[in-house]
Amino acid sequence: MASPLCIRGGRVLDPARGIDRVQDLWIVDGKIAGLGEDAPADVRSNRSAEVLAVQGAVICPGLVDIHVHLREPGQEEKETIDSGTRAAARGGFTTVACMPNTDPPLDDRPRIEYVIRRARECGHARVHPIAAVTRGQMGEALTEIEELVEAGAVAISDDGKPVRNAEIMRRALELTRPLGVPVIQHAEDPDLKGDGVMHEGWTSTRLGMKGIPDAAESVIVARDALLAELTGGHVHVAHVSAGRSTEIIRRAKARGIRMTAETAPHYLLLTDEAVEGFDPRTKMSPPLRSAKDREALLEAVVDGTIDCLATDHAPHTDFEKDSDFDSAPFGIVGLETALGIYVKALVEPKLLTLPELILRLTVNPLRVLGLPGGTLEAGVPADVTVFDPSRRWKVRAEEFASMGRNTPFQGWELPGQVLMTVLNGRVTFRAETLLASAR
Amino acid sequence: MIGTRKDLLGLEDLAPEEIVSILDTARTFREVLDRPIPKVPSLRGLTAANLFFEASTRTRLSFELAEKRLSADTVNFQTSGSSVSKGESLKDTARNIEAMGIHLVVIRHQSSGAPHYLARNLDAGVINAGDGTHEHPTQGLLDIFTIRERRGKVAGLRVAIIGDIAHSRVARSNIWGLTKLGASVTIAGPSTMMPMEVERFGIKVAKSVEEAIEGADVVNILRIQLERQRSTLYSSLREYARVYGITSARLKGAKPDVTVMHPGPMNRGVEIAQDVADGEHSVILEQVTNGVAVRMAVLYLLAGHKAPDESAAEHPMPKETKKAHGEPSLHPRR
């Protein structure tokens, strides 16, 4: 037996098992040994155990983000698998699913295998690659979906752009149905989007910016709901931004259609008014929408219409984002601010309890991908996150582990400071100054 | 006040009294333009750079003329949007300007907010000469200046703006300026060219061009462009001319002494009929002349916090001005 790790005195939240109590969490040999008295006596009496006191903090299953861009291979100036997974650990995430819009895209077995291998070498987070729906993400010919899933892809998506062709979407859903993986759709009609750069509404009218109507998203969501019903396949809607989309998803679920959805932190805290100063750090796809959309998203997160909370972590270089609005690329980073934003947007206004939030950041995203885990049950790999929900911290992009500094939340004070992240029983991040070693 | 500002980025940012102050200053420069030697030393020793990332003839000429009439040194940089990688060039341009010690930058750019980017990154004063479909503040000012000269006031006037409001920076600057000065603005055009929630500007949206023109003191006609990616917005120029073109017959609904304006360049026979363009109500060429005076006023006022050389500072304004409009705020501070 290696030296056990004891995380002492925190509030253990394991919502999938209905656990919410102050207790020690014991970890040994990379696995959860047990909670409090349930941990084996020889573990608890082991003199070489490391004990970390985390009074007042929450101990929960490692957080899961099913929507990140790690940029490798091909765009290592923006992010690498190493830097992106370090950012995940720093943000409290132990598992991420990465999008295939790399250069070249993840559309064949060697690239999928490369990502998995590279992530293992880095060892900061579990990385599940998502494969492209179409070759080169060109929207024309399907990839070898069965082989890609066999190689380890947990879903398919052409994220960055939608699967525009309804016939291809239909066939992708038919082919993935027996494999049990979802087709993740970036729902944004390219014709309605045009060369739009922000939400179409009063702010875009005032700023003279080309608008993207909310319907650009919702028409694709509606179409895909119909295709999911036709095929029995599973559509997962990425980064839902529009209130109208939540209505469609809610109705689709009520009809028994296999449709799941995620949203991203910024849509719950910001609106299109944030674009006011033409700051490219407020430019992402889909765009920040109206206050009404934001309200509808919060409601959909609360009632479960939106199953899980992701980040759409999309790093870019400072140079690309330091420009006029139109020229800047879409996307912002999210891994290192997500937990704080979700606590601020959902828990502080009492829309969700902490266990309800954690469910949407652990078990729910794993379920979307058909993956096990997300609990602190004895014997499972010890993926654990420790955070202080009430401790406030200041966002300093210059301190990010991510190579991307493109966040609209620079300088914000957020609650929910991550104290420690544990992957397979190994500490991948610890806020040194905040953690007291005991014994 | 305008005299303390570093930049002019849009009329949305200006208080009514700042707009009036610019218009008053422009009037004194308008007088300068009628002199035998239409030149003053106000900006001697200062350098203005005209950066045109988007093709323009008259606005660039108008600015250059205004700068020269104020005795500034001028440099021009013109590029088409496609020949330069946009974001890259803007950042590099900013760095170059900084390195060259330029005092005032006039920028036209195809991207809304590009002047704001420069303004944030430069100590030099930045004047927006048209950014994307956002604002074209000096055009708005020269239109309002022309209206005030013609009709003696702005408050209470009924102004109709006809055309593609969604893609018009001229429309936005006019709407901000006119409403701030108390005019009542009505717009008309194809519904595909009306931006979302446009009535929140505090203006009326007419159902037809006839309704917009009814009883108008001023009709401002926007240039219509159906090229580029705008082909889905409307069927044809022919149909546009038939439904929205301003003809003498349509103009009969306006006040008998209506003032007809167009920011140019005109598509004669499309948005404006030949006889209207050249008719008695048209002030289109006056707008061009006034444009130089208005741009002189803007350059002069923004240069207020730069430091022109000794001799220029001694004669900051034409002599007549000091008598007529001697507010201290108009003088460059040292």
UniProtKB/TrEMBL annotation, chain A:
Coiled coil: none annotated. Residues 56-242 form the Dihydroorotase catalytic domain. Zn(2+) 2 binds at residues 159, 186, 239. InterPro entries: DHOase, DHOase/Allantoinase_Hydrolase, DHOase_cat, Dihydroorotase_CS, Metal-dep_hydrolase_composite, Metal_Hydrolase. GO terms for biological process: 'de novo' UMP biosynthetic process; purine nucleobase catabolic process. The active site is at residue 312. NCBIfam families: pyrC_multi (TIGR00857). This is Dihydroorotase. It comes from Eiseniibacteriota bacterium. The lineage of its organism: Bacteria, Candidatus Eiseniibacteriota.
UniProtKB/TrEMBL annotation, chain B:
Belongs to the aspartate/ornithine carbamoyltransferase superfamily. ATCase family. Carbamoyl phosphate binds at residues 58-59, 108, 136, 139, 264-265. Residues 6-149 form the Aspartate/ornithine carbamoyltransferase carbamoyl-P binding domain. It holds the Pfam family OTCace_N. Keywords: Pyrimidine biosynthesis, Transferase. This is Aspartate carbamoyltransferase. The gene is pyrB. The keyword Cell inner membrane does not apply. It comes from the Bacteria. It is an enzyme of class 2 (transferase). Residues 309-334 are annotated as: Disordered. Heterododecamer (2C3:3R2) of six catalytic PyrB chains organized as two trimers (C3), and six regulatory PyrI chains organized as three dimers (R2).
